[in-house]
Every structure is written in structure tokens, then in C-alpha cells.
């Protein structure tokens, strides 16, 4: 049975993940009245629902640091802002580097402080005694620690934005995929969207927040969006010992990240080594058919990395694993951008950054649609434009870490 859709909308957003819902919320806050969000599955069923949920301000890109700082305020005060909690757990975030990157770490921490992150260098002794006693600190060069970092719940966060948007009058239609964007006869501007079941909504503005699916949607109207899927494989373990409260940990030396689960005491292990990524052609990606579990090789690698820096936790046990795909761009920086088609906008390509900066992304996307430029102090939209590759004008870190292919730092 076809759902009853409005015939017209002021704005249609494709995708009800965190980016689509945060953008809908921000537009509605600014008195855009007729907003329709179309989701082919369920709210948060794509990359958002599979996110690790780590929260940090640690970046080597000042722009992303500022977005993370702005977004953290929403995570901290979500009940006041959105009316619902988002599972924010301020267990802290720690980042460890090898000896080669000590000075770069110090420079990045100073940059982060200047941009509002509560962070600092901590000694190995402090790490052993106060932060994570089981960690073998001697193999690391240095550590940074931000006490307000930690993690949030991606599903709760997505739902909180969706509920807040609905409370402001936004229509969210689930299980209602978009077949194509409709353009004028000359292809120069948006006039509407057609759903998979053949319904048409006429609208002058479409925001494509469809993750990996953005490539296919825009290809059909002649716009190349260089995003592709990349496989993420995450592992849940029981550490085999009580650790107390420990932080989320970005282990740059071994290219892994670890997120604690406060309630259960379990740990989530993720791979941050992008030397040999498993890319997925967007044309072939089907979330329903995609493998739901990590491979044996990925599990073995994750546990090996974990034990290399936590050798005393040799009794750790595998509990579960899951696998998903998230969208990546060639430079690891997202698209928050207009396109050659008037009225068509992109909000995609978050390359693993998305959850921690999502509240800021919603504000920026609303700014772009309504004002044509960022209204957020110190946050420029230009580095996120679609044309940056052909213009050879890419966002680069001020102090890049050496000997790494980790584009998420």
C-alpha cells in the first residue's frame, strides 16, 4: 500500500539518518514549514545505526575540531535542546601515539585547546595510575586526554533529532525510498522527487543525505559525487577482568580504537588502519544483502592488536561482531555542498567523522540552503564543496601525523 505523501514540499531530504534528521531539525527551527524526509528503510538504519558513537575533539584539522566542539554542546545538553537524552557518557577520550609523533601530538593538542577542546598531554604515569591501569604504556610515545570526550548512543541520538524535528512539524516517511530526483526540462534545477512506488512530491529543494546512496541518486541527474562504500568491521569483547571506568581510546600506534560500554563492562574494538580498505561500488551496495558480521581474519587482527597493548587481558573473550558500510570520499572530508543543479544539495561522505560532528552538520546544511554560506563562527563551508577536487583545493591538516593512512585524524 502506498503511503500518503504531500504533493508539495518546501524542502525534501533524502535519508533519515543522523545527518538528514539533524538538518531537518535545524531547518524547522528556522521556520521552514513544509519539510519532508524520505527514508527507504527505517530511521537510523544505515551508517548511523552502525556507528561506534565515539566522541572526541582530537583532530589535526582545526575545522573539524571546531565542529566537534560545537557538536559536543548538543550531546552534553541534549535533553534541554532536543527533549530527549542521547546516551552521552563522558568517560573521557585518550589518544596515544608512537615516539615519532610526540611533537606532532603536542602541536595538535595546542591547536585543539585554542579551538575550545578541554584537552592536554598526560604522562604515562598518570595513564597507568588514573586512566587505564591495564594499558602497557611503555610502547607509546605520549598521550593526550580530554575528560569531556567519551561516547554517545547513535540510535538514541538519531531518534532524538527525528522526534525534535517532528515536534516542529517535519514529516518523516519511513520505508519510502526515492527513485529519482526530478529536474526541469533543461536539467538545470530541481522540481521534485519521485518515490520508488511512483508518487511525486514537487519541491524546489532536495538535500541528499543518503550516505553511499548519494552517488547513485545524483548520477541519475548527471552529477558525479565521488563517494563509495567502505566496509567497517567491529568486534565486541569481554575484557576478562573488571577495569572500572575507562575512556574511549584512539590507539594511533596500532591503528585501532576502543570504546568501553559503561553498563556491561564490555569493549568495542574497531580498526583504524586504512592501508587496505575494502571498498564497495555504490552501484552494487545493498544494505539488506551486505554481510552482517566481521570476517575471521578481521576478528583475529582486532584481538591481536588489542592484546598487543593490553597483554594482561589475555583472558578476553569474543562476544559478537558486526559489519556495515559507511560512505567515504577520496580525501576523507565530507560534502556539505551545493551542486551544479540549482536546488540540489549534498550532505554526505562523512568518512567516519559523522556522529561526533552531526549537530554542527545540521546547522551548516541549513545555513547553506537558507543563506548560501555558513553562519557558524569560525566554520567555513568552502572546504566541503563538491568542486574542490577539480579545483585542486583540498582541506589539509596543519600538523599531520606521520607514517599513517588513517584519514580520520
Give an overview in words.
- The strands form four sheets. Strands 4, 5, 6, 13, 14, 15, 16, 17 and 18 form a nine-stranded mixed beta sheet that branches. The chain has a six-stranded mixed beta sheet with strand order 8-2-1-12-20-19. A three-stranded antiparallel beta sheet has the order 9-10-11, with no helix packed on it.
- It is an alpha+beta fold and 409 residues long.
- It has a domain at 90-145 and 229-327: D-Amino Acid Oxidase, Chain A, domain 2, CATH 3.30.9.
- It contains nine helices and 20 strands.
- The chain is globular, with a radius of gyration of 21 Å.
- 25% of the residues lie in helices and 23% in strands.
Question: What percentage of the residues does DSSP assign to strands (E)?
Answer: 15-25%
> How are helices and strands ordered from N to C?
EHEEHHEHEHEEHEEEEEHEEEEEHEEEH
Structural class: alpha+beta
In helices, the fraction of residues equals 25-40%
How many beta-strand runs? Answer: 20
Low-pLDDT sequence parts: none
Please write the CATH class name of the domain at 90-145 and 229-327.
Alpha Beta
Give the overall silhouette: globular
How far apart the termini lie comes to: 46 Å
CATH topology category name of the domain at 90-145 and 229-327: D-Amino Acid Oxidase, Chain A, domain 2
Q: How many DSSP H or I helices?
A: 9
Output the radius of gyration: 21 Å
Major sheet: 9 strands, mixed
Oligomer type: single chain
User: So, CATH architecture of the domain at 90-145 and 229-327?
Assistant: 2-Layer Sandwich
**What is the name of the CATH superfamily of the domain at 90-145 and 229-327?**
D-Amino Acid Oxidase, subunit A, domain 2
**What is the mean predicted local confidence, pLDDT?**
94
Amino acid at each position: 500500500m502506498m503511503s500518503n505523501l504531500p504533493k508539495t514540499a518546501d524542502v525534501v531530504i533524502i535519508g533519515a539518518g543522523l545527518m538528514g534528521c539533524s538538518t531537518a531539525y535545524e531547518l524547522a527551527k528556522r521556520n521552514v514549514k513544509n519539510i519532508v524526509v524520505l527514508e527507504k528503510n527505517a530511521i537510523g538504519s544505515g551508517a548511523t545505526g552502525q556507528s561506534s558513537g565515539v566522541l572526541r575533539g582530537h583532530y589535526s584539522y582545526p575545522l573539524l575540531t571546531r565542529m566537534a566542539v560545537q557538536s559536543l554542546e548538543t550531546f552534553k545538553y541534549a535533553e534541554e535542546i532536543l527533549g530527549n537524552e542521547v546516551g552521552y557518557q563522558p568517560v573521557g577520550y585518550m589518544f596515544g601515539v608512537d615516539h615519532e609523533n610526540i611533537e606532532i601530538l603536542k602541536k595538535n593538542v595546542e591547536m585543539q585547546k585554542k579551538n575550545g577542546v578541554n584537552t592536554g598531554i598526560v604522562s604515562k604515569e598518570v595513564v597507568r595510575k588514573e586512566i587505564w591501569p591495564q594499558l602497557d604504556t611503555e610502547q607509546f610515545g605520549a598521550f593526550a586526554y580530554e575528560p569531556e570526550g567519551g561516547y554517545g548512543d547513535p540510535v538514541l541520538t538519531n531518534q532524538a533529532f527525528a522526534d525534535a524535528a517532528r515536534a516542529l512539524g517535519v514529516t518523516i516517511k519511513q520505508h519510502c525510498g526515492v527513485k529519482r530526483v526530478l529536474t526541469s526540462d533543461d536539467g538545470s534545477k530541481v522540481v521534485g522527487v519521485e518515490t520508488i512506488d511512483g508518487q511525486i512530491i514537487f519541491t524546489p529543494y532536495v538535500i541528499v543525505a543518503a550516505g553511499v546512496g548519494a552517488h547513485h541518486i545524483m548520477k541519475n541527474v548527471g552529477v558525479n559525487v565521488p563517494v563509495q562504500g567502505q566496509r567497517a568491521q567491529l568486534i565486541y569483547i569481554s575484557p576478562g577482568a573488571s577495569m572500572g571506568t575507562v575512556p574511549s581510546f584512539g590507539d594511533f600506534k596500532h591503528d585501532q580504537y576502543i570504546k568501553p560500554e559503561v553498563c556491561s563492562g564490555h569493549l568495542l574494538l574497531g580498526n583504524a588502519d586504512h592501508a587496505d580498505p575494502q571498498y564497495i561500488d555504490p552501484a552494487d551496495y545493498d544494505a539488506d544483502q551486505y554481510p552482517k558480521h566481521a570476517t575471521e581474519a578481521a576478528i583475529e587482527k582486532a584481538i591481536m592488536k588489542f592484546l598487543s597493548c593490553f597483554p594482561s587481558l589475555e583472558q578476553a573473550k569474543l562476544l559478537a561482531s558486526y559489519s556495515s558500510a559507511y560512505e567515504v570520499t577520496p580525501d576523507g572530508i565530507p560534502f556539505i555542498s551545493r551542486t551544479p543543479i540549482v536546488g540540489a544539495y549534498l550532505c554526505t561522505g562523512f568518512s567516519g567523522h559523522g556522529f561526533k560532528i552531526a549537530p554542527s552538520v545540521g546547522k551548516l546544511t541549513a545555513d547553506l540552503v537558507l543563506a548560501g554560506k555558513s553562519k557558524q563562527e569560525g566554520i567555513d563551508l568552502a572546504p566541503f564543496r563538491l568542486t574542490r577536487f577539480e579545483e585542486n583545493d583540498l582541506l589539509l591538516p596543519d600538523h599531520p601525523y606521520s607514517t599513517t593512512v588513517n584519514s580520520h585524524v
